[in-house]
Amino acid sequence: MSLWQTIRVALEGLALNKVRSLLTTLGVIIGVAAVIMMLGVSAGAEAAIADQINALGANLIMVTSAFTRGGFGRDAPRIQSLTYDDMQAIRTQVTGINGATAEQTAMQNVRGGDKTLENIPIVGTTTDFPLVHEYKVAQGRFLNDTDVERERKVAVLGYKVAQDLFGESNPVGQQVKVGSVRFTVVGVMAERGMVGNTDFDARVYIPLTVLFQKFLPARFGGGGVRLIYVSAQSQEVMNDVMAQLTALLSKRHGVDPASPDFTLTTQNAIIEARASTTEAFRNLLTWVAAVSLLVGGIGIMNIMLVSVTERTREIGLRQALGARPWDVQLQFLLEAVMLSLFGGALGVLAGIGGTYLFGALGSMRTVLVPASIPLAFGAAAAVGVFFGYYPAVRAARLDPIEALRHE
User: Fold this and answer.
1) Ranges of the chain with pLDDT below 70
2) Percentages helix, strand, coil for the chain, rounded to the nearest 5?
3) Which residues, other chains included, contact 60 with Cβ-Cβ below 8 Å and sequence gap of 6+?
4) pLDDT tens across 344-390, in order?
């Protein structure tokens, strides 16, 4: 019996019970769709993390301050190891960078016109902030070196703050009151929205030196900065820039470069660290999908065993007419594989559609992983072969005489 004839007979066997065949494939459909969708959810989570980190700017190196105690005793204030002067030294002495900026934040009420916004983040920063973070100014200008050096009371409003305080009117040149200090608005930042947990549009930017003077006096750690952002010119010079930063800051702080009082972190390192936290989540999703495929395979084995019992006389008749045991085994194995492949095809369609639909309607981002399609479809084929083998062997081992006597 030729392979084509065996395939035709297998298809006829499945067509006799269309509804049962479709219901048998449901487990495989769900399993394949689950593989594609769950890998899409995992990939979407990793992509969202990468986008949030990369949105801070290109080729960033983050220099994080360690805390040291000033004075004596347990109640002595904790002083941050990085300072504004460290940032200035980085700007002038480190090569291969586009710029560097320091940031420090205080929470204050902001009043403009007849409106007051409570607990607004007031970010003290420096000239290179828009360059380092690739953040554009929509109106007016950003802070310049003269503003920072002369401690001018000027402010740049985030997009949302400007809208809430001044509506459609131009805020540039207007006065705002931050805490008890009056500032002149010199610019408004372009709309940016949330980056990670930070809403860039809901902040007010002022010279870092003014923040130290008015909102973070020396006795509360004024003069120290929590974080310095350094933008390297390219990925190729990142290692060289990091080596320069370590050498410069270690010398300025009088510490051993092998155990510095600061930490250097790149965007890629943060992305890799965050991505590793999603690995357990991805593994869990994969196991859930695997269980769905396993259940689908058990369903196929069960229905094929039932089919062998129901078609015992047919098997005996085929053997009496000259069909070899191998022909019978191949027929039933092909039926199981066809059920799996049919379910796999429908599962792929459901998985692709579900991935896009889940991303469009849900709050989590999803990304279709092309490799998941052949992976899921191949798994479905493997399920058909594995769980269809035993029923096929059982059918082939039936005695023709006994099979013909079966009622």
Assistant:
1) 1-18, 48-58, 67-80, 196, 217-223, 269-281, 310-311, 315, 319, 321, 363, 398-407
2) 55, 20, 25
3) 132, 229, 230, 231, 232, 266, 267
4) 888 899 989 988 888 788 767 788 888 888 888 888 888 888 888 88
Amino acid making up residue 215: F
> What pLDDT is attached to residue 220?
44
Selection from 168, 167, 182 nearest residue 111 by Cα: 182
Rounded to whole angstroms, the Cα distance separating 155 from 159 reads 13
Number of Cβ atoms within 10 Å of the Cβ of 166:
19
3-state secondary structure of 334: helix
Cβ neighbourhood burial of 79 (10 Å; 0-12, 13-18, 19+): middle
Query: How many Cβ atoms are within 10 Å of 91's Cβ, its own excluded?
Result: 19
Runs of H (alpha helix) within 207-266? 208-214, 238-253
**How far apart are alpha carbons 391 and 407 in whole angstroms?**
20
Q: If DSSP codes are grouped into helix, strand and coil, which group holds residue 96?
A: coil
Give the pLDDT confidence score for residue 288 in this predicted structure: 74
8 Å CB contact between 23 and 344: no
Helices (H), 137-231: 145-149, 159-166, 208-214
Among the listed residues 206, 141, 149, the one whose alpha carbon sits nearest the alpha carbon of residue 179: 206
Torsion of CA 181, 185, 187, 188, to 10 degrees: 80
Give the pLDDT confidence score for residue 207 in this predicted structure: 94
Give the per-residue pLDDT at 135. Answer: 86
Place of tokens 């006096």: 217
